[in-house]
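Exercise 4. Each item below gives a protein and its sequence. For each, produce the structure-token representation.

Item: FAD-dependent oxidoreductase (Aestuariirhabdus litorea).
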Amino acid sequence: MTHHLDTDIAILGGGIAGLWLLRRLSELGYSTLLLENATLGGGQSIKSQGIIHGGTKYALSGNLTHASECIAGMPKRWQACLQGEGEIDLSCARILSPHHYMWSSAGLGSKLTTFFASKALRGRVDQLKPKNYPAFFQHPAFRGSLYQLNEFVLDVPSVVSSLVQGLEDRTLSIDWEKSRIEHDTDGKISAILLEHQGEQTMIRARRYLFTAGAGTADLLQRWGVEGPAMQLRPLHMAMVRVPGAQPLFAHCIGTSTVPRLTITSHPDQQGNWIWYIGGEPAESGVKREPSEQIARCQQELTQLMPWIDFTSAEWGTLRVDRAEPRQSNLLRPDAAYCKALHNALINWPTKLALAPNLSDEVLRQLQLQGIAPQIPQPAATSLPRPPVGKPFWEGVLP
Ligand code: FAD
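Answer:
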């Protein structure tokens, strides 16, 4: 027997992009179903550093690009949602730090002061007086200048839980070994056929939103269409749990346009902070063995913060790819990406922070195509639902 689920919108992939769209479109009255083949947020989103950028990092190259202009409005959009006053309610999500910081090691200070005082960055960056430094930087041995950015850091698992809360019935687990995308002779998707315990469910949507991150290329292949090309930018992140350490949220600026280190801090269940290390070592360390990557990061940290004792620290590394639309020379894409293809929209937010920007693009496309809410929400089924992904350090650190 085949069950039918008819809906306005089917979303394929439950990372930040798919979940933001699920929440926003459902609240606008669209019937929605989200299909996830693993865990919600467990792709790039929960492995990200959770920084809601305002673009300052991208201005380091000396000229403000389109990327930094487009992203500049994102912190305000998120802030409104976190206060329960935005397009969606994220008031249950946790803010790990109300600010992200930028610090320059001694010697670079004056050059940076001139740059940060430039007109282009006015209102986005404030140089801090030592008495206003966060606890970590108050150590007398700290040398260098510290700037506060109009950016903040989120606990992504709590964002994922908030996005799905109350919409769990609209999420379904899908096993592609037993499922397939059906299409018409003209290439349009006619249905997604999903099999569970010998029973078939046919999902028919007016529009299909592809938000599967690194899995989108495979989905396009299953559909049998030539879609937009994807690029993967591999990263080798490091993490360290230092007993008793203060939380740290900062880019350390060197002489390159890529931060020398980008560190965010994430609490474990025992209340210890885990420092999550990206920036230059994550980009350059893809070919390093985990032990070499740990040694490299330990060397950097010891040099930059000689007052911290790492003797009983626990270290780990995590490899993860950023998935984006293909650019020439593997450059970073400028903004959220949304492209219409038959009766689907192919999407990559390119940054967690750009999820609201992506939802604007999707809504614009739906409006252009005359897709307003029409079909009633299908009744909840007993099909399995995907769980929320685990924090990134689980299974990496003891
Ligand atoms: P994902 O989060 O990868 O979600 C895709 C989902 O689709 C997953 O749940 C996956 O299981 C599912 N899926 C895959 N294949 C299928 C399939 N065939 N069928 C159904 N479901 C499928 N951005 C920022 O703004 N700030 C940051 O601080 C930041 N830090 C980052 C740090 C790292 C280490 C990385 C890797 C990225 C970082 N980013 C950051 C970028 C950001 O994480 C991503 O741009 C964003 O999370 C992508 O969201 P997504 O929903 O497109 O993809």
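Check: The radius of gyration is 22 Å.
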